[in-house]
Amino acid sequence: MARKSLGNIRRSFAPWADPAAIPQVRFESVTKRFDDIAAVSDLTLSLYPGEFHALLGPSGCGKTTLMRMLAGFETPDSGRILLDGQDLAGIPPHLRPTNMMFQSYALFPHMSVFDNIAFGLRQGNLKREAIAARVAEMLALVKLEGFAGRRPDQLSGGQKQRVALARALARQPKVLLLDEPLGALDKKLREETQYELMDLQAELGLTFLMVTHDQDEAMAMADRISVMERGRIAQVGAPEEIYEMPANRYVAEFVGDINVFEGVVDEVKGEIISLDGRHGPIILDDPDPSLAIGQTVSVAIRPEKISITLEEPAQPTNKMTGEIWDIGYLGDFTMVQVKLDGEAGQLVRVALPNRSRRAERPIAWEDRVWLSWDVEAGILLRG
Ligand code: ATP
Question: What is residue 345's DSSP assignment?
């Protein structure tokens, strides 16, 4: 499938910011227990029409259970799930306007591609010609014209994924549920397929809810991400909000790489907070008036926000000295670890973009260096 540029469209898409916008799906105080484990705990979340929403979190945090409740495969113990204002309680999965694409694809091995896609349609009361037309439309949509007669074992992994997608879309669900949709594909194919799925979603104007434990995938694909922790939502927001303004330490550590520094609050002047850190003074810009002088806090700095220099930077704060401990060349960037000076010096990760091709690195193992960052780079961690 050809890749279209949807960047501008997606950037302006933010119905959740409009108080008058009506959600398509509402999870209202939903709880689901398995024995004594609350897989989903008093969770409230709205999804908007046309949104690509990712549920992100470590294994066992309740992502799949939340999605399965929307699909009708699990029943909430308490709370309600609404779709277009209708309470879904008691409606079986096949009568819900949702469809789920499973990670394993769950294709019928003995059936042709055509019959796999037609399967759900045959359970309705569509005529044969209408079914054939719909299957052909779906095959064209996923660029598999000419594959109708093949069996799943005659397809590549990527092609199987497309058949599963075509089958899930054939009955025209209002909300498509994707359980780790790219989990079985290799890295390169995964990246290509990400864009195809995003284009398809925008083209069809459908709401997608995707479960993933891969933060890069969620960041690249979703309009908004819910980061889940033990059955609850730790933060919901656009990828850049989650990354640049994580609500707490859990989110900051789960999404992206961070360095955490501890410090004692020295002074709070408007939004400027001064900390007495173990490796030097730290100054950050944060609109939190609730900090008390003498309080110990943690500050996160993303590796790409830190500069490394051989000379001392001119700025008076947010600079520390150390020694190059490790250099890992990762293609598009180099991850450098610096061991800060002092007893049990902390290891700090710094990401340096590889902008130009060069045979020699400007820094080398055991170099003595300065690390520095801007006042805006620090994220005050709560919780
Ligand atoms: P993964 O990424 O590994 O799929 P997940 O975030 O999707 O994880 P869930 O599958 O929703 O997590 O599981 C949440 C919790 O509920 C886990 O502790 C799991 O063991 C438990 N659980 C899920 N389904 C059942 C079940 N059918 N019976 C008993 N416990 C279950």
Answer: P
For 278-289, how does the pLDDT look when each residue is reduced to its tens digit (9 = 90+)?
Answer: 888 899 988 776
* Share of residues in the chain with pLDDT > 90 (%): 60
Q: Is the CB of 65 under 6 A from ligand 1?
A: yes
Q: Are residues 323 and 376 in contact, defined by beta-carbon separation less than 8 angstroms? A: no
- What's the total number of domains in the chain? 2
Whether residue 232 is found in the same domain as residue 377: no
**Local structure of 332: helix, strand or coil:** coil
Cα(231) to ligand 1 centroid in Å equals 10
Domain shared by 66 and 195, yes or no: yes
Regarding the beta carbon of 125 and ligand 1, being less than 6 Å apart is answered: no
Range of the domain at 335: 257-381
Residue nearest to atom 10 of ligand 1 (CA): 64
pLDDT in the model for residue 354: 78
Residue 81 lies in a domain: yes
C-alpha 151 to ligand 1 mean position (Å)? 32
Hey, which of 65, 210, 225 would you mutate to test ligand 1's pocket, going by the most ligand atoms within 8 Å of its Cβ?
65
| Nearest residue by C-alpha to atom 20 in ligand 1 | 60
pTM of the model: 0.87
161 lies in a domain? Answer: no
Same domain, 319 and 304: yes
CB neighbourhood size of 115 (10 A): 16
pLDDT confidence of residue 359: 47
* pLDDT score for 383: 60
Mean pLDDT of 177-203: 86
| Beta bridge pairs of residue 229 | 232
pLDDT, tens digit, for every residue of 94-124? 899 999 988 778 899 999 999 999 998 888 7
Does 39 sit in the ligand 1 pocket, CB within 6 Å? yes
Kindly state whether residue 178 falls inside one of the protein's structural domains: yes
* Selected residue with higher pLDDT from 162 and 69: 69
Q: Report how far ligand 1's centroid is from the alpha carbon of 145 (Å).
A: 37
What size, in residues, is the chain? 383
Pairing of strands 319-329, 368-372: antiparallel
358 found inside a domain:
yes
CA of 59 to the centre of ligand 1 (A): 8
Closest to 245 in 3D by CA, of 231, 255, 260? 255
